[in-house]
Design a protein that fits this description.
23 helices; alpha/beta; D-Amino Acid Oxidase, Chain A, domain 2; 4 domains; FAD/NAD(P)-binding domain
Length: about 775
C-alpha cells in the first residue's frame, strides 16, 4: 500500500511508524512544510493512562520517548494566597521538539520518506497513492479544498491565550489565578524537561484571559516582546526570577474543530485536521497519536481502504467525542473562572480538578484519600451549618490526631435546608410522568412507585407533573389536582412516605399547553383521536408538530382562569400535606411556552422581550406562592436552553432564575430542551449540570442538577464542587428504587431500615 501523508507532526509520524512495523512493504511518504528543528511549541503532556495505551501499541518507540519524559503526580492550584495540592494523578511531559525528533528518527530508520520544506496546497500536487492522510492541522488545506466536504465546523472560543516557555521548573501541573486592574489572568504551567541545558526553557507557561481583559490590558496592540514583558511583570513573584521565552507569542483564540465526516474513501483526516480538544486537558497530541493507533489497526485488518476508513471512523469517533465533551467542559470552566472567584479555596481547588467531569470525587478518593477527606469534612460542616442540624444516620468515621473520631459524611448524604424544610440528604427522585392515572386520580401504582423510592433512602421524592385542569393534561393518564376528590389519594401517598421513611415528598404542578391531548409515551405520543381529545391553550397558536392540534391563543380571560387553577391546585397540595411544591416552567409546556421566543409570538405585554415573556409565569408563581404555606419551599423547573438557534440560551436562563428568585423562589431545577421537536441537544454524561452550575453562581440561587446522572461518584462531585445543591436522578431510580441506600452502602454507610425490614441489618450483600 502506498500512503502519502501531508504534515509530519506526531500523528503522521506515529502512523508511519506503526504502518511500517505492521508491514514493511508499505510505502509511506510524508510532506512537511517545516524543516527539521523548526517546530514551535514547548511541551506536550500525556497522562499515565495515555502512556499505557501508546505503549501497548508500540512499546519500543514509547520506551525511547520515556527517556526524555519528566513525570509528576501533583496538581497545584494557587488561589487567593493558598496552595491547594492534590496528588496521585500521573502526568508525563516532553519537549515537542524532542518528541518529533525521536519519532522522526524512528520513522526514517524504518524506511519512511520525509520531504521537508514542501508545502502542499492541493491534493492535485501529490503523487499517486492508495491512501492520502491529511495531518496538516487545524487549518488543513486538504480538508478545505475537498469538493465532497467533511462537514467542518470551527468554533473560535472567546478567551485569549498566549503560549510561552520559561526556565522555571514547576514541581506539579500548576495553575495560577491572578487579578490586576485589567482583570483576571489564568496560568497553566508544567515542566517538560528534567535536565534542561543552560538557559533553555524547561516548562510551558500558558497565560489565558477573557477577551475583555486582554483588550483592557492593551495587549491587543502589543508585539511579542511587549506581551512577554507584561506577563513577566505580572507574574514576577510566581516566576521566581525566571525568564519567559517567546514562542511565536501571538494571543489566539482556541479553535474547536469538529467534522461530520473524517474520510472520503481515499483521504482520511487525523489529528487536529479532524478534531481538536482544549489544551487545558492536554489532549491534542494524545488524540493525534491515538488516531494513528486506531487507523493503523483498522488498515491492518484487511478489506478495502474505504471499508477500513469507515471502520476506523466508527470505532474512533465515540472516544474522540467523549474527550471533546470533557475538553469543552474544561475550556468553558476557564472561560468563566471569574464566576468561581468568591468560592472557598478548598472548593475552588476541587472544582478545578474535576472541571472536565472525567475526574470524579471517587477517582480523587482513590488517588488522594487525604485530599478528599478534607473536602468531605469541609462540605459536611458547611452543610450542617446551613441546615442547622448534624448529618444524621451516618456511621462513617475517621480518626483524628488525638485518637478520637469524627463523622465525615460524603457530600450526597449531608443535609440541606429550604425555608423550614430540612432534607436528610441531597438525593432527589426526579419527577417522572407515569401516565397511569384515571381521571387525574393517583392510585396504587403511584403509591408503590413513590413509596418504594422513599424507603429507598432519597432525601426528597418528587411526584410527577400534576396538572391543574383536565385540559392541562399531557395524556388521559396524567395525574391532577384540579378536583377536591384528588386530594385524598394524594394524601394517602404523602402519609405513607412520612410514616415509613425519612424522605420528604414534593409535587410538581403544571399545564401541558400545546403538548396536551396526546397518547401515552408507550402508545406513540401521538395526538388523541378527535372523540377523545380536548381543546389546547398556548401563548400563541403554534402546534407542537404537524401531527398535533393547533392550540388556541390564550386571551386575558384564559390567563386569569388558568392562574386561578394553579393557585387552587397549590391549596389542594397543601391539604394533601406535601412538603415542597415545584412549578413546571420547562419542556415546552404552557408556562415554558410563554418563556421561549420560539413558542411565544405575542405582540401584547406578554410577548416580545424576555421581561414580557416572563410576565405571565411570574404572575402564576405569585399566585401559587400566595396559596402555598410561607414556611414551605416553592421551586421552579426551567429549560435553561432550547437547544435551537433563536431560543432561550444560558444567559437568559440566568435572568429567568433571578426573576423567580426576586419573587420568592427557593431553588431552580435546571433542565433543558424539549421546547420544540427540532431541538439539537448535546447529550452526554451530566450534560445539563453546567446549567445548574451557572445559574447557582450567577443568579445566586440554590439549584438542582438533572440529566444523565447515575453514580454516587457524580453526585458527590457535583455537590462538593458547588455545581448544584441537590442532585436529581430519574432513570437510575426507575432501575433501582433503593439507589440511595446502595450508594451509601458502597460508600461504607448503612442507612437505617424501616422496622419491618429490620432483619436486613444482619444481612451482608453479595454482588459476585
Amino acid at each position: 500500500m502506498r500512503v502519502i501523508g501531508v504534515g509530519a507532526g506526531p500523528a503522521a509520524l506515529y502512523l508511519a511508524i506503526l504502518l511500517k512495523k505492521k508491514d514493511p512493504s508499505h510505502s509511506v511518504t510524508l510532506f512537511e512544510r517545516h524543516h527539521p528543528g523548526e517546530s514551535f511549541g514547548f511541551g506536550v503532556v500525556f497522562s499515565d493512562a495515555t502512556m499505557d495505551n501508546l505503549a501497548n501499541a508500540d512499546p519500543v518507540t514509547i520506551d525511547r520517548l520515556k527517556e526524555s519524559f519528566h513525570h509528576w503526580d501533583d496538581i497545584d492550584v494557587h488561589y487567593r494566597g493558598e496552595l491547594l495540592r492534590s496528588t496521585g494523578h500521573g502526568f508525563s511531559g516532553i519537549a515537542r521538539a524532542a518528541l518529533l525528533r525521536i519519532l522522526r528518527t524512528e520513522a526514517l530508520s524504518l524506511g519512511v520518506e520525509i520531504r521537508n520544506g514542501v508545502e502542499v496546497r492541493s491534493r492535485a500536487e501529490l503523487p499517486p497513492a492508495d491512501l492520502i492522510v491529511a495531518a496538516d492541522g487545524v487549518a488543513s488545506l486538504l480538508r478545505t479544498e475537498s469538493a465532497a466536504g467533511f462537514g467542518t465546523r470551527i468554533d473560535e472560543r472567546k478567551n485569549r491565550f498566549v503560549w510561552l516557555g520559561t526556565t522555571r521548573r514547576f514541581p506539579a501541573f500548576t495553575f495560577y489565578f491572578k487579578s490586576n486592574e485589567h482583570g483576571l489572568f489564568r496560568v497553566h504551567a508544567y515542566q517538560y524537561e528534567t535536565h534542561p541545558v543552560g538557559e533553555n526553557p524547561c516548562s510551558t507557561f500558558i497565560v489565558e484571559a477573557t477577551d475583555e481583559t486582554f483588550r483592557r490590558a492593551g495587549l491587543s496592540e502589543t508585539d511579542e516582546a511587549a506581551t512577554v514583558a507584561y506577563c513577566e511583570a505580572l507574574f514576577r513573584e510566581e516566576l521566581e526570577g525566571a525568564r519567559l521565552i517567546p514562542n511565536r507569542s501571538i494571543w489566539r483564540r482556541f479553535p474547536t474543530v469538529v467534522n461530520e465526516r473524517w474520510h472520503d474513501g481515499s483521504m482520511v483526516l487525523i489529528g487536529d485536521a479532524a478534531h481538536t480538544a482544549h489544551f487545558s486537558v492536554g489532549s491534542g497530541t494524545k488524540l493525534a497519536m491515538e488516531d494513528s493507533i486506531a487507523l493503523a489497526a483498522s488498515l491492518s485488518r484487511g478489506g478495502s481502504i474505504p471499508e477500513a476508513l469507515t471502520r476506523y471512523e466508527q470505532e474512533r469517533r465515540g472516544p474522540v467525542e467523549s474527550l471533546q465533551r470533557a475538553a469543552q467542559a474544561s475550556l468553558e470552566w476557564f472561560e468563566d473562572t471569574e464566576r468561581y472567584m468568591n468560592t472557598a479555596p478548598i472548593q475552588f481547588g476541587f472544582n478545578l480538578v474535576t472541571r472536565s467531569l472525567r475526574i470524579t470525587h471517587e477517582d480523587l478518593r482513590k488517588r488522594d484519600p487525604g485530599y478528599v477527606a478534607q473536602i468531605d469534612a469541609w462540605y459536611a460542616v458547611e452543610s450542617e451549618t446551613q441546615a442547622g442540624v448534624i448529618a444524621p444516620l451516618l456511621n462513617l468515621t475517621e480518626r483524628d490526631s488525638r485518637g478520637g473520631t469524627r463523622r465525615i459524611a460524603p457530600p450526597f448524604l449531608t443535609p440541606f435546608k429550604m425555608r423550614d424544610l430540612v432534607l436528610e440528604n441531597r438525593i432527589v427522585v426526579s419527577s417522572m410522568c407515569q401516565y397511569s392515572a384515571v381521571d387525574g386520580m393517583p392510585d396504587d401504582w403511584h403509591l408503590v412507585h413513590l413509596g418504594s423510592r422513599a424507603i429507598g433512602g432519597a432525601g426528597l421524592v418528587m411526584a410527577e407533573m400534576t396538572d391543574v385542569t383536565p385540559e392541562g393534561r399531557i395524556t388521559p393518564g396524567c395525574t391532577g389536582l384540579y378536583d377536591d376528590k384528588q386530594v385524598k389519594p394524594w394524601k394517602r401517598i404523602v402519609e405513607f412516605v412520612h410514616k415509613n421513611s425519612t424522605a420528604k415528598i414534593g409535587i410538581q404542578l403544571g399545564h401541558a399547553g400545546r403538548k396536551g391531548a396526546s397518547t401515552r409515551e408507550w402508545e406513540g405520543d401521538e395526538a388523541l383521536p378527535p372523540d377523545q381529545s380536548w381543546d389546547l391553550l398556548a401563548p400563541s397558536p403554534i402546534a407542537w408538530s404537524k401531527a398535533k392540534r393547533v392550540p388556541r391563543e390564550m386571551t386575558a380571560e384564559d390567563m386569569a382562569e388558568v392562574k386561578g387553577h394553579f393557585a387552587a391546585a397549590a391549596r389542594r397540595a397543601r391539604k394533601a400535606g406535601f412538603d415542597l411544591l415545584e412549578l413546571h416552567c420547562a419542556h415546552g409546556y404552557l408556562l415554558a411556552s410563554f418563556l421561549s421566543p420560539l413558542t411565544n409570538h405575542r405582540s401584547d405585554a406578554y410577548g416580545g422581550s424576555l421581561e414580557n415573556r416572563l410576565r405571565y409565569p411570574l404572575e402564576v408563581f405569585d399566585a401559587v406562592r400566595g396559596a402555598w404555606p410561607a414556611e414551605k419551599p416553592l421551586t421552579v423547573r426551567i429549560s435553561a436552553t432550547d437547544w435551537v438557534d433563536g431560543g432561550i440560551v444560558a444567559e437568559e436562563a440566568v435572568a429567568i432564575a433571578k426573576a423567580f428568585k426576586e419573587h420568592g423562589c427557593d431553588l431552580i431545577d435546571a433542565s433543558a430542551g424539549q421546547t420544540v421537536p427540532e431541538q439539537r441537544p448535546r447529550y452526554g454524561r451530566l450534560f445539563q449540570t453546567p446549567f445548574a452550575d451557572r445559574i447557582r453562581h450567577e443568579a445566586g440561587i440554590a439549584t438542582m442538577a438533572v440529566g444523565a446522572i447515575s453514580s454516587f461518584a457524580d453526585a458527590n462531585t457535583i455537590l462538593a464542587a458547588g455545581r448544584a445543591d441537590l442532585v436529581a436522578l430519574a432513570r437510575a431510580h426507575l432501575y433501582d428504587p433503593y439507589w440511595t441506600r446502595h450508594a451509601a452502602q458502597d460508600f461504607g454507610v448503612r442507612l437505617p431500615w424501616p422496622d419491618p425490614y429490620s432483619s436486613i441489618n444482619a444481612y451482608t450483600p453479595r454482588f459476585r
